[in-house]
Design brief:
140 residues; mainly alpha; 5 helices; 77% helix; elongated
Length: 140
């Protein structure tokens, strides 16, 4: 019984973890952009990075976070659009990384590699769930 639900539980756990992590970055960005007194709460590198983020990078990150939340909701509601939604979210996270790289920042450190591993694992689990739970086709 647990083996049947394990892929979904692991995918949900990864999605929740990803939302917590990106939620931290989202909250930090909002605080740094709206209140200069909050600079003391974060590292100078983080403050400098957030201040240099352009509009394309911001939009791709915000949309990726929203799509990750939508993936979680769709998966809980058993709506098969979760796979497409998460694939687009991962793409938008990478667009964010590309624009950061163009500005001289690199996310290919330990945190970035861990992020890639969890995104890949979640994507593979979602593909597995999508394939396993596909509607039956009747052949006459």
């Amino acid at each position: 019984m647990l083996a049947r639900y394990a892929p979904k539980l692991i995918a949900l756990t990864i999605l929740i973890g990803q939302l917590l992590y990106t939620g931290y970055w989202l909250g930090a960005e909002i605080l740094i952009r709206s209140n200069s007194a909050s600079y003391a709460w974060f590292s100078p590198e983080m403050v400098q990075f957030i201040q240099t983020v352009g509009p394309v990078q911001q939009i791709s990150f915000y949309l990726a976070v929203l799509l990750t939340l939508a993936t979680l909701i769709l998966l809980l509601r058993r709506n098969r659009q979760y796979l497409t939604t998460y694939a687009v979210a991962v793409f938008l996270y990478k667009v964010d990384w590309i624009f950061a790289g163009l500005d001289g920042y690199s996310f290919i450190d330990m945190n970035g590699l861990i992020s890639l591993i969890f995104e890949s694992a979640c994507l593979l689990l979602l593909i597995h769930l999508f394939w396993r739970d596909r509607p039956a086709v009747k052949r006459d």
